Amino acid sequence: MILAAIDIGSNAARLLICEVVKHDKEIEFNKLNLIRIPLRLGFDVFEKGSIGFKKKKMLINTINAFSALMKVYEVDHYIACATSAMRDASNSKEIVKEIKAETGIKVEVISGDLEAEIIYENHIAELLDANKSYLYIDVGGGSTEVTLFHKSAVAFQKSFNIGTVRILTNKVEDATWEDLKQTLKEIGRNYPKLVAIGSGGNINKIYSMINSKNLKSIPIEVIREFHRVLEPMTVEERMHTYLLKRDRADVIVPALNIYAYTMKWANIDEIHVPKIGLADGLINHLYEQVK
Question: Which residues share a beta bridge with 77?
Answer without folding.
Answer: 3
